[in-house]
Amino acid sequence: MKIAFLGLGNMGGPMALNLHRAGHDLTGYDLSPVACKRLAAEGLRIAASTLEAVAGAEVVISMLPASQHVEDLYLGNGGPGLLESLSAGTLVIDSSTIASATSIKVAKAAAPRKIAIIDAPVSGGTGGAVAGTLTFMVGGAQADFERARPLLEKMGANIFHAGPAGAGQAANICNNMLLGVLMIGTSEALALGVANGLDPKVLSEIMRRSSGGNWALEKYNPLPGVMDKVPSSNGYAGGFGTDLMLKDLGLAQENAIATRTPTLLGGLARNVFAAHSLAGNGALDFSSVIQPLLRAKK
Ligand code: NAD
């Protein structure tokens, strides 16, 4: 299968490599020469432009930062968009995390050109991208989902069809809004326990096996030293950045306003992460949100 992969950043780079290593005829392109150079060194064929990358491609995959990048790429920004250069029958898989309204807008523009398009945002972070164990949440027609599935399986371990165009994005923001809220809640409970002199490991284990048990306690404890191989025990490096969480909580709030859905805790979580980012923690893993809740060590 001839594939063009656009956006070779922290996520797109390893995802493209997994497809390449699975034997697909893949050409990559990124606006950043640094990203292109890094992937070329890993053995990926790199095009000199977007149009060169997509020439003759049956499938185009994009992994870009935000809504505006996706809209500019496919619909154009003062010039023709990429949709105008793709032949009928091309399958477009956009894995960027963007507003579901943007995914729907691009899908509507693709339909009259007979270009199949799905939104397929991911969960699982850079570790999942490297290991090929991402979760894909797909929005689009069933037939297009089935066409994409063998490729998604080379990059992910859990592949879900969430519904029509935009549904993948909607499912993703629901999940990440819940994750943001539960990380703050878990951080407060742990900070309260520590302030009461409880051993963080013992308290974490009690809550993990009790009615407060959740994913953060299970796999991503925010207190340094409780778990190995999690960002909190590595100076909050790697993982899922505070600014990425802030972006997703912002998308959730935009959607909540558009659909008139009350999301009180989701809004509060966005504000907590906004303040955390403003305090200089944007690049740290989002579990660092516990730090301002802890007393300074005497
Ligand atoms: P990144 O900034 O590392 O990579 C994005 C790349 O897209 C950049 O290298 C940029 O140069 C390139 N780009 C922008 N416009 C382009 C264009 N028109 N053509 C070609 N390349 C272009 O970001 P990332 O961490 O890889 O994240 C990508 C997406 O995945 C985001 O939407 C993010 O929210 C989502 N996501 C990230 C994570 C994570 O842990 N990093 C986890 C889940 C989802």
Characterization of the model:
The chain is of the alpha/beta class and 298 residues long. It has two domains: 2-163, NAD(P)-binding Rossmann-like Domain (Rossmann fold, 3-Layer(aba) Sandwich), CATH 3.40.50.720; 170-297, N-(1-d-carboxylethyl)-l-norvaline Dehydrogenase, domain 2, CATH 1.10.1040.10. The protein has twelve helices and nine strands. The protein has a six-stranded parallel sheet, sandwiched between helices. Helix 2 (33-41) links the parallel strand 2 and strand 3. Helix 1 runs parallel beside helix 6, helix 4 (67-75) runs parallel beside helix 5 (100-110) and helix 8 (167-195) packs across helix 12. The longest helix has 29 residues, at 167-195. It is globular. The mean pLDDT is 97. The protein binds nicotinamide-adenine-dinucleotide. Residues 6-12, 29-32, 35, 50, 63-65, 69, 73, 96-97, 122, 125-126, 240, 244, 247 line the site of nicotinamide-adenine-dinucleotide (NAD). Residues 6-12, 29-32, 35, 50, 63-65, 69, 73, 96-97, 122, 125-126, 240, 244, 247 line the site of nicotinamide-adenine-dinucleotide.
